[in-house]
Amino acid sequence: MPSLSLGLNAYINAASYLFTVILAVGVISHGMERRNAFVLRATGMAAVMLVVIELFALAVQSLYSNSFEKADNIIYIQTVKYFCIFVLSGVGVTVCYKCSAWHGLFFATSGYCLQHMAAKIADVFTDIVLPPLHWSAVTVIGFTISVLFSVTFYLLCVRRARLNYKLIITNRTQVAIAACVVGVAIIYNSFGMSYVSALISFAGDPAQAAGLGKLAVLFVHVMSFLIAFLALMLDFGMCKSNLVSAERDELERILADSKRQYEYEKRNIETINIKCRDLKHQLAAMKGKLYEEQIRELSDAIGFYDAGIKTGNEALDVVLTQKTFIARNTAYA
Prior knowledge:
The chain is mainly α. It contains nine helices and no strands. Mean pLDDT is 77; it is low at 1-5.
């Protein structure tokens, strides 16, 4: 029976891949309210994901040991592995943060797209631009590019987007479509590289095979990048739309409050004017019954509140009259 132990490179590659996925999902979900025991929950989910990755690596190694239809089966296993990591990313967000399953799907979709785009950039360098490298160099380049890409995306996009996590999920259909696009990216990337290998094997001339292979690999990487970019734009486009809608609703609320306040002030001023006119009539009827000093004091008090501004613009009259009352009260105080 063949040994199913994994080499050091397999463990390092698995840890590097897992870290880049967690980092990408983390920079997107940064700012969410955390659940209790967040570190313990996150560590537990990371351990589960690492075990899953290692189990798939063992399955691939087992197929290499048994050559029966190994190529096609390895593609299927790798595809299922990426789907499992994608699903576990969403579960991990839901477990670690106070959010719904739809939020988990949103952050998993965006984070996975971010990691996938960074991985495709790294693949272009290691598969096409640079000469053949040792596996450790390939891992370091991929890890470095993924980290830099995620951090840059956070600084330039996530932090400036001012995501409102309470309003982020308003179109579940769009979130589901973006998740389906991620599935397309996973399938396309897995089977695309397989067809590239088959294409190279049919080329007779080695030089022609090498040139054709590089073009085909570049095409697969670019298309895979663009598919992930499309899913990411679907998610962030929805976020931007939600932010604009929320700001518009807030502006409409402020305008409605201002209108109610205007109507309230207008009624108050009209009531004061009516009362002042009544008091003037009553004061005129009381002349001769009060001392001149008392009449003057009452006239001054009535005049204070009867000093309405008349400009011909009703809205402007209300505002100026209100400001006049405030200014006079301040002066008398």
